[in-house]
Amino acid sequence: MSKRKKKQKKKYRVFWFFAKIQLLLLLIVAGALGVYYFGGYAQKVSELQADAKRLVSQSDESTFRSVQTSVVYDANGQQISTLKGEKDVYYLEFDEIPAYATAAMVSIEDKKFYRHNGIDIKAILRAAKAMIENGEVTQGGSTITQQLARNVFLNQDVKWERKVEEMFIAVELEKIYSKDKILEFYMNNIYFGNGYYGIQAASIGYFNTDVKNLSLSQIAFLCAIPNNPTLYGPVEHSENTIKRRDRILSNMLEDGKISQQTYDEAMAETITLNRAQKTKNDYVETYVYNCAIKAIMAQEGFEFKTEFASEEEKQTYDANYKIAYEECQKSLYTKGYRIYTSIDLNMQQQLQDAVDSNLAEFTEQSAEGIYTLQGAAVCIDNHTGYVKAIVGGRNQNLPGYTLNRAYQSFRQPGSAIKPLIVYTPALERQYTPDSIVSDEKIEDGPSNAGDYYEGDITLRYAVEKSKNTVAWKLLEELTPEVGLSYLKEMKFSRLDAQDARLTSALGGFTNGVSPIEMTAAYAALENEGKYREPTCITKITDADGVILYENQMEEKQVYKVNATRMMTDMMVSVMQEGTGKGLALENMPCAGKTGTTNDNKDGWFAGYTSYYTTCVWVGYDMPKELPGLSGSSYPGSIWKTFMEQIHQGLTPVNFNPYIDENKQDLNDQEYLDSIQQELEGTEQTP
Predict the structure, then answer these.
(1) Structural contact between residues 308 and 497, judged by C-beta atoms closer than 8 angstroms
(2) pTM of the full predicted structure?
């Protein structure tokens, strides 16, 4: 056979080979089209495209910042805690994101980002080839826009439907938002491991500082993580993170984003994580969150009530309260609030230490490992009415949050209630500290401590010695309804219709009172009868600083001014000559009252200076006798320990004098007239 014939025959075979290949490809395409149209795929793809258009058309910028971490600050601007749901997110605008960060992400994740329309066809073909070979999606092939689409609108499934819809969404996103805006969304939503979403959260989480403060090397280190947080997570696999950081820096050098010198310096830098040690301020945090939730509820129009006309009305209220509380609680963990409080963490630690040290000898614990003997205390700033410190129990560093007895527990207040529902109301009704009252045994009535009675005594002396008989008879004269009306004015939340009885004069309530309620009520006495509802929230803003709530700290006149001044003066005597003797502060005028319940089950001490009011409770969670417990023992010691510390360096301030019209000194009439004018200018009848 000639060479020419052999050549023609070979050419003929090659022709038929390619013809068969083309025919096979046509058959494959035809088959694919058949499957696509007649197998229901065409309809499915059409539905996915329509769904993608709907999702994107309904979006706006808030869609990409729907979940943000809230932050709580103390009175000095120090961070107390963060509140986050499943994500830790701090949102940054595009111009707040370092240029190195966006350049690094584009270099490593999507070099054609600024050239494509949302999808990269070549990358998709590579991913499709890998999918055919492996039978599943094994390569991303995703642009930054596609990754954003998946993170915000879809899930992490590897099904073909999700991949197709991801591409449709990416194309639609590019029609609505600019490249810079898409990159902003991406940098704030991409996952950096350990619960951190967005580069700012990652910077704070791994380096304990804002991303604007990071070096190029640190930024590239962070940008190495999102590709595979499990593989490149810096806590467990820092060597992998470093290798990918080096690759990112190399890409940035090749892309002309950094100079050779900058590259060399970044490569040489040693990366050291600086993860913040989380400190759990147990009692502060639970109280702050409760106050913040209620502030948001009030801002949204919820009306709080403590009195009800019927049990049915109360049940309806409780149900509505629960719904509103839970909704606002959810927003606390997702809306990126900035919550500013009056809490002073230094004072908080001092109050916690005072409780712990004075109860240290009691080491018995429950089956759950919680100290059986407990204490709770609250301090209010008398100048502002805000809570400065709140302790709901002894510190044990237990996991999770524990019962905050300062506002969640209600106990019998004993004699600490007398100034609030007996003595100050009586002082509004012609009684004075020098009024003569009778201390004598009452049939079917209470006994005094030691079963000791002294006949005719002054009201001042009755308060000093906490005479039960006198308090009982005065409330009988006032009527329990009148006495309790003052507590209702001050929003004591667990009062019961059955509390309208004479035993309330000695603190015998159906449900009891909380330390926070008692502190606020005593603060009203110091504030010349003006009650301010206790809270620690000063204001709440959104993540951009827009004020959403600002507390005006309203005052309500509950007691008459002169009556509170007389009550204060008598409680000064309590500290000097009465049941609180030995608890007076060294260089600061102070007033206070003890409280002890039957069988020494609860001990209270409530007292104040012109600067601060502090109330302390000590007892068992399951009430039982503690021999030696009284208001002047452990509660009084806690009170004095704490109050001495927080008054160091403060100028002594005397309490305002009261007017006793029965003892006006004619030689000092001008002075008395000036006081009378002051009282007439401020006094109101409740």
Answers:
(1) no
(2) 0.81
DSSP state for residue 559 in the 8-state scheme: S
Q: Which amino acid type is present at position 385?
A: G
Whether the pLDDT of residue 6 is over 70: the answer is no
Q: Rounded distance, CA 379 to CA 515, Å?
A: 10
Q: What are phi and psi of 497, to 5 degrees?
A: -55, -30
Contact 484, 500 (CB under 8 A): yes
Residue burial 446-475, b: 16+ Cβ < 10 Å; e: rest: bebeeeeeeeebbbbbbbbbbbbbbbbbbb
Task: Report the 10 Å Cβ neighbour count for 178.
Answer: 10
272-328 pLDDT, tens digit per residue, is 999 987 777 889 999 999 999 999 999 999 999 988 989 999 999 999 999 999 999
Cβ proximity of 671 and 658 under 8 Å: no
Cβ(113)–Cβ(183) under 8 Å? yes
Q: Residue 631: CB partners within 8 Å, gap ≥ 6?
A: 414, 415, 416, 579, 580, 593, 594, 595, 596, 603, 604, 605
What distance in Å separates the CA atoms of residue 514 and residue 521, rounded to the nearest whole number? Answer: 11
* Given the residues 81, 415, 632, 637, the one annotated as active site: 415
- From 70, 109, 166, 466, the catalytic residue: 109
What does the alpha-carbon distance between residue 89 and residue 39 come to, in Å, rounded to a whole number? Answer: 43
Residue 298 buriedness (CB in 10 A; 0-12 / 13-18 / 19+): middle
pLDDT tens digit sequence for 190-220: 999 988 999 999 999 999 999 999 999 999 9
How far is C-alpha 483 from the geometric centre of its chain's CA atoms?
Answer: 35
Provide the pLDDT for residue 673: 60
The alpha carbon of residue 462 and the mean position of all alpha carbons in its chain are separated, in whole angstroms, by 44
- Length, in residues, of the chain: 686
Task: Choose among 192, 187, 203: nearest CA to 274.
Answer: 203
pLDDT at 49 (0 to 100): 82
Q: Would residue 109 show up in a list of annotated catalytic residues for this protein?
A: yes
**Residues with Cβ < 8 Å from 476, sequence gap 6 or more?**
502
Complete DSSP assignment for 269-305? PPP---PPPP---HHHHHHHHHHHHHHHHHHTTPPP-
- The kind and range of the H/E element at 608 are strand 602-608
Give the list of residues 6+ apart from residue 590 with CB closer than 8 angstroms, or none: 572, 575, 584, 607, 608, 609, 643
d(CA 114, CA 374): 63
Nearest Cα to 377, choosing from 491, 483, 522, 494? 522
Contact present, 617 and 405 (Cβ < 8 Å): yes
On the CB side of 445, CA atoms within 13 Å amount to 20
The rounded distance, in Å, linking the Cα atoms of 395 and 338 is 27
For residue 200, give the nearest of 98, 80, 279 by alpha carbon.
Answer: 98
Amino acid of residue 395: N
